[in-house]
Amino acid sequence: MRSVPARIDVSTNRSVGMTKMLVFLVATIGSAIGWWVGAFIGTMSAFFLSVVGMAAGVYVARRLAAEYAG
Question: Are 62 and 19 spatial neighbours (Cβ–Cβ below 8 Å)?
């Protein structure tokens, strides 16, 4: 049985790289907002809301990228 190679995203128009950058930035912003909101309650709340904010940021960024990239 052969191993499957890792997926390599190669794009001539750099849309894949821009999508990854957008996801990174929006996920970071969502995570920071979640941490800030959760910090009013406590550290564990900040952590969990940070994770929720990051997931929401990834979702929103991928939807935006799919809408604009085509």
Answer: yes
The continuous run of DSSP H or E covering 59 comes out as helix 43-69
Find the mean pLDDT for residues 5-34: 79
Asked if residues 60 and 23 have their Cβ atoms less than 8 Å apart, the reply is no
pTM of this structure: 0.76
Q: Which residue has the tokens 């190669």?
A: 10
List the domain boundaries for the chain: 25-69
- The phi and psi torsions of 14 (rounded to 5 degrees) equal 65, 20
CA distances, 22 to each of 3, 5, 42, 60, 62 (Å): 31, 26, 29, 10, 8
pLDDT in the model for residue 68: 82
